[in-house]
TrEMBL record:
<dbReference type="InterPro" id="IPR001917">
    <property type="entry name" value="Aminotrans_II_pyridoxalP_BS"/>
</dbReference>
<keyword id="KW-0032">Aminotransferase</keyword>
<comment type="function">
    <text>Aminotransferase that catalyzes the conversion of aromatic amino acids and 2-oxoglutarate into corresponding aromatic oxo acids and L-glutamate.</text>
</comment>
<dbReference type="InterPro" id="IPR050106">
    <property type="entry name" value="HistidinolP_aminotransfase"/>
</dbReference>
<keyword id="KW-0663">Pyridoxal phosphate</keyword>
<dbReference type="InterPro" id="IPR024892">
    <property type="entry name" value="ArAT"/>
</dbReference>
<dbReference type="GO" id="GO:0004400">
    <property type="term" value="F:histidinol-phosphate transaminase activity"/>
</dbReference>
<dbReference type="InterPro" id="IPR015424">
    <property type="entry name" value="PyrdxlP-dep_Trfase"/>
</dbReference>
<dbReference type="Pfam" id="PF00155">
    <property type="entry name" value="Aminotran_1_2"/>
</dbReference>
<feature type="domain" description="Aminotransferase class I/classII large">
    <location>
        <begin position="32"/>
        <end position="356"/>
    </location>
</feature>
<dbReference type="InterPro" id="IPR015421">
    <property type="entry name" value="PyrdxlP-dep_Trfase_major"/>
</dbReference>
<dbReference type="InterPro" id="IPR004839">
    <property type="entry name" value="Aminotransferase_I/II_large"/>
</dbReference>
<dbReference type="InterPro" id="IPR015422">
    <property type="entry name" value="PyrdxlP-dep_Trfase_small"/>
</dbReference>
<keyword id="KW-0808">Transferase</keyword>
<feature type="region of interest" description="Disordered">
    <location>
        <begin position="16"/>
        <end position="36"/>
    </location>
</feature>
<protein>
    <recommendedName>
        <fullName>Aromatic amino acid aminotransferase</fullName>
        <ecNumber>2.6.1.57</ecNumber>
    </recommendedName>
</protein>
<feature type="modified residue" description="N6-(pyridoxal phosphate)lysine">
    <location>
        <position position="229"/>
    </location>
</feature>
Length: 366
C-alpha cells in the first residue's frame, strides 16, 4: 500500500494530521477489561427481552426517539423539546460542538479530560483551548473562565472528570456560570453522574431545575448523560441531552439522521423500568470504587477523589511501564503516556488483583 502522502485525494487540513479516536484496548477471554469504564454487570433479562422484541430490522427507527424523550421528560420534569437523544452522548457532544464552533472559534475544556474533546474541536475546524487541571486533578474553573475570549463558542465541563475522577462543586459551578457570557454554550458532561456520592457535587438537573424554577437564567447550559455507564448499555449507543430547545434544535440539525436505533431506544426504556435495580448495581460499583481508591492510597498511590466508575493512578513518566505490568497480569487498563493510568471498577474479583499489582509497582514511581 502506498503512503498517504502519495494519494491525490485531498483531505481537509487538520484532519489528515488528526489521529482517529482510539478506544481502550480490548481484552482476551482470560483478562479483565478495565480500560473503557464499562459496567461489569450482565444485562438484565428484561432489557434483553425488550431489545429482542423491538421493531423489525427492515424498518427505520423513530428519528427523534419520541418514546424515550417522553419518558425522560417526565422523569426529569422538563418538556419534550428540552430532551434530545443521541447515539451515545459522544454523538451529542459532536453535534453541539459542530453547531456552535467552526474555524476561528475556540472550544475551552480542562485537560486532562475526555479524549474526545480535542478531537471533536479539531473535527469542527475550531481551536481547542486546554486549561490544566489543578494539582489535585480537578477542574480549575477560575482559570477556565479566564481562558474565555471573544472567540470562545463552547466550554466543556466534565464532572466527574474522566480520567482523573473528581467532581466539580455545585457552588463553584454556580460561580463559574455567572462569569461566562450567556452567548457561550456550556456543556456539562455528566456521563458518570449516577456514580457520584460526594456531597456538594454539581448536579446538572439541579442547575437546569433552578432555571425552570425561575432562578438564574441559564439557557446556555446543556447537560449530557448516557445509558452507557450506570445503565450498562455501552454497546447499544444511547445518550441524552437536557437543555434549551433552541440549542437542542441546533444539535438535531447537525445530527446524522436516524443513528439512534429502535433497539437502543427499547433498551433505554426497559432500563428506566428497571431503574431501581440498576441503581442498586451502581451503588455496589460505587462501594467497590471507594474500597479500591482507599486501599490504593494506603498502598502509597496519590489517587485523587474518585467519583466515577474508575480510579486514577498518577504514574507520571512510569505510566507505560506500569501499565505493561498490569497487562501482563491480565488486567487491561488505560494508560495516558507521561501522565497516569485509569482503571475501571470492574468485577469484584478484579479489585484484589488491581490492588496486588498496584502495590507491587508503587516503589517504581518517580
Ligand atoms: N463523556 C465522557 C466523560 C465519557 O467518558 C464518555 C465515554 N467514555 C462519553 C462522554 C461518551 O459516552 P457514550 O458515547 O457511550 O454515551
Amino acid at each position: 500500500m502506498s503512503d498517504a502522502a502519495d494519494i491525490p485525494v485531498r483531505v481537509r487540513p487538520g484532519i489528515a494530521s488528526l489521529p482517529p479516536y482510539k478506544q481502550g484496548t480490548q481484552a482476551g477471554p482470560d483478562a479483565y477489561k478495565l480500560s473503557s469504564n464499562e459496567n461489569p454487570f450482565d444485562p438484565l433479562p428484561g432489557v434483553l427481552q425488550a431489545v429482542q422484541s423491538a421493531s423489525a430490522f427492515n424498518r427505520y427507527p423513530d428519528a427523534t426517539a419520541t418514546r424515550l424523550r417522553e419518558r425522560l421528560a417526565a422523569r426529569f420534569g422538563v418538556t419534550l423539546d428540552e430532551v434530545h437523544i443521541g447515539a451515545g452522548s459522544v454523538s451529542i457532544l459532536a453535534q453541539l460542538v459542530l453547531a456552535t464552533s467552526g474555524p476561528g472559534d475556540e472550544v475551552v475544556y480542562a485537560w486532562r479530560s475526555f479524549e474526545a474533546y480535542p478531537w471533536l474541536a479539531v473535527l469542527a475546524g475550531a481551536t481547542p483551548v486546554q486549561v490544566p487541571l489543578t494539582a489535585d486533578s480537578r477542574h480549575d474553573l477560575d482559570a477556565m473562565a479566564d481562558a474565555v475570549t471573544g472567540r470562545t463558542r463552547a466550554i466543556l465541563v466534565c464532572s466527574p472528570n474522566n480520567p482523573t475522577g473528581p467532581v466539580v462543586g455545585q457552588d463553584e459551578f454556580d460561580a463559574f456560570i455567572q462569569r461566562v457570557p450567556s452567548d457561550i454554550l456550556v456543556i456539562l458532561d455528566e456521563a458518570y453522574a449516577e456514580f457520584v456520592t460526594a456531597p456538594g457535587a454539581v448536579d446538572g438537573l439541579t442547575v437546569l431545575g433552578n432555571r425552570t424554577r425561575g432562578g438564574a437564567e441559564l439557557p446556555n447550559v446543556v447537560v449530557l448523560r448516557t445509558f452507557s455507564k450506570a445503565f450498562g448499555l455501552a454497546a447499544l449507543r444511547v445518550g441524552y441531552a437536557i437543555g434549551h430547545p433552541r440549542i437542542l434544535d441546533a444539535a438535531r440539525t447537525t445530527a446524522i439522521p436516524l443513528s439512534v436505533t429502535a433497539h437502543a431506544e427499547a433498551a433505554a426504556l426497559a432500563s428506566l423500568d428497571a431503574e431501581e435495580e440498576l441503581l442498586e448495581r451502581v451503588r455496589h460499583i460505587g462501594a467497590r470504587r471507594d474500597r479500591l481508591a482507599e486501599a490504593l492510597r494506603d498502598a502509597g498511590w496519590a489517587v485523587p477523589q474518585a467519583q466515577g466508575n474508575f480510579v486514577w493512578l498518577p504514574a507520571h513518566e512510569n505510566t507505560l511501564a506500569i501499565a505493561e505490568t498490569f497487562t501482563a497480569a491480565g488486567l487491561i487498563v488505560r494508560p495516558f503516556a507521561g501522565d497516569g493510568i485509569r482503571i475501571s471498577v470492574g468485577e469484584e474479583e478484579s479489585v484484589d488483583e488491581v490492588l496486588r499489582i498496584a502495590a507491587s509497582v508503587v516503589e517504581d514511581l518517580p
